[in-house]
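Hi,

I'm pasting everything inline rather than attaching a file, because the server keeps stripping attachments. The sequence lines come first, and each chain or strand is labelled.
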Amino acid sequence: MTRELKFYGTPLPGVEHEPHNGKLIVIEGTDGVGRSTHTALLRGWLEARGHAVIDTGMTRSVLAGRGLKEAKTGTTLGRLTMQLYYATDFADRLENEMLPALRAGFVVLTDRYIYSAIARAIVRGIDARWIREIYGVALVPDLILYLRAAHAEELVSRVIASGRKLDYWESGMDLNLGEDFYDSFVKYQTRLLKEFDKMAGEYGFRVVDASRPIRRVAADLRRAVARVIEADETEKETAVGA
Amino acid sequence: MIPYGKHRFPGKLFVVEGTDGSGKSTQLALLYQWLKAEGHPVFFSEWNSSPLVKDTTRRAKKRHLFTPTTFSLLHATDFADRTERDIIPPLKAGAIVLADRYIYTAFARDVARGCDRAWVRGLYRFAVKPTVAFFFRAPLDVAIDRIVSGRPELKYYEAGLDMDWTDDAEDSFKIFQGRILEEYDRMVGEFGLTVIDATGSIQRQQREMRRIVMEHLNAKETDA
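And the predicted assembly:
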């Protein structure tokens, strides 16, 4: 089934609204919840089933990825500037990676989407309406998989168990929430979890309990993805048969 | 985030706007010298000057990476950095800030490139409302003559060549500048821009500018 481009708010200018038959699938969740692991698993599974897949994620844009990463290593990145840098990175990937791939009939897997950006902005005291309007240029995805952790403590243990050090921004150190990275991480991620929960209903997240073993979570994700993709394939066959 | 029009700072913010070649930078430089000579603390802030964004912009222009949306967003990023760092702190400290190009430049250019008018205005909602925004208005043919005769070659984005209106840089530039001027004219009433006739002599324009600035420096109340 081909579909029209559907935007959350003000559509992207200069984009032809021709229908496409790709699929936009979002994997959302806080830091340390296993998004990259599951994105990789889903990609392999989809490709094995013959689907062409591209994956993308924050700070990977050709236009702004490098500049944004550099800005994050310094000490002068202000709150508004950071949100807009992320929005630039997002728009570049949307227009130059996601849209062309959707038009070519790919499955686009994106590790995070606008919801992370909105949650991070809101916990930094940024006006919610402002940031949402900016991200109005985003396409409404076909499926939003939200990997949900119940508690931030669970996330921090995972990050540490994986041998990674806690990152300055992932720990919300710019917000002065706690004495050290651990305390700050827990408080910051708790706030993010709250924002994600608030968005779940509004945006129609498919909530997946990420506290379970990887295998179980992956099975749930595959089932949800299969439903979105196979719904189309059945329709296509029916259409050909008729 | 304090929205446009709601900031209450003791300092004053004066901005100059206008199409390329309208002479606004010359006027602002003269104003700067005068204010400094009068003993005021004055800061100067230019369009496209954020150290966090500069390299990204330069590279994107060189490699033609922009779409109208990313052009708009990256310029807003640059402006946000200037606002957070160069504009708000001096205004809070009671100083005078002079800005060469401000949000109205983005409104004019981005809309001329096809971005949604309301979306672009919303994007810049965090901006401080200027004490006075001078719009140096030159008729289209005058502005175009000044630029085309003063430069060996028009730049890609400056000429609006990314829009594919035409392959000819000079023709494209004319179309683009025409649209920009239309947007500026529309903003005069919307944002209360102070129009200065940019065809008048440099001295005359400067006299008018100083008179208006003086009025605001003498006024006790501030709404910048």
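Residues 68-92 of chain B form the longest helix (25 residues).

If the labels don't parse on your end, tell me and I'll reformat.
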